[in-house]
Amino acid sequence: MKKTKALLIVDVQNDFCPGGTLAVPEGEKVVPLINKLIAEFPVICASKDWHPTESVHFQKWPVHCVAGSKGAKFHPELDTNSIDLVLLKGTYNKDNGYSAFEATNIDFVQWLQTRNITDLYICGLATDYCVKASCLDAVREGFHVYLIEDAIRGVDLQRGDSEKSISDMRDAGVEIIDSEAIY
Q1: With 70 as the cut, is the pLDDT of residue 3 above it?
Q2: Is the pTM value of this prediction over 0.90?
Q3: Which CATH class is domain 4-181?
């Protein structure tokens, strides 16, 4: 079977960028790089936090990415024209929805399999939460996973959380690459 690759853009949303309620340090800096990466992939998927106004998620985090809000929209400079699938996660009030594989609007694994996707390249926000969860779930589902390290940013609630997360992903079988390896 021919290997087919897809790009998964994780949560590049207004609330995770400067001015947002849960801004990731330098989160906006991934946008130009992701826009450049989009041209290299035949299949593009993007996840969104899409929380209800009342969510268990907000016991740990500030209110963010409420379904339909300005904060839940993709960053305005992200090129969304080529996105084939938008995955909505964290949509239930008792659901954290960190991983794109927890999407409630579609069976993401089945969607990828019907397109013969074997290699999944992952970028976006935030390294130490949603990116990590998506990478680990992708490996568990049998995909060959590449983390594009220069196209991610982390929250780092504790100093070193992102570095530890990258190490954990590597240990789980995720291949850590730079965007230059794609061009």
Answers
A1: no
A2: yes
A3: alpha beta
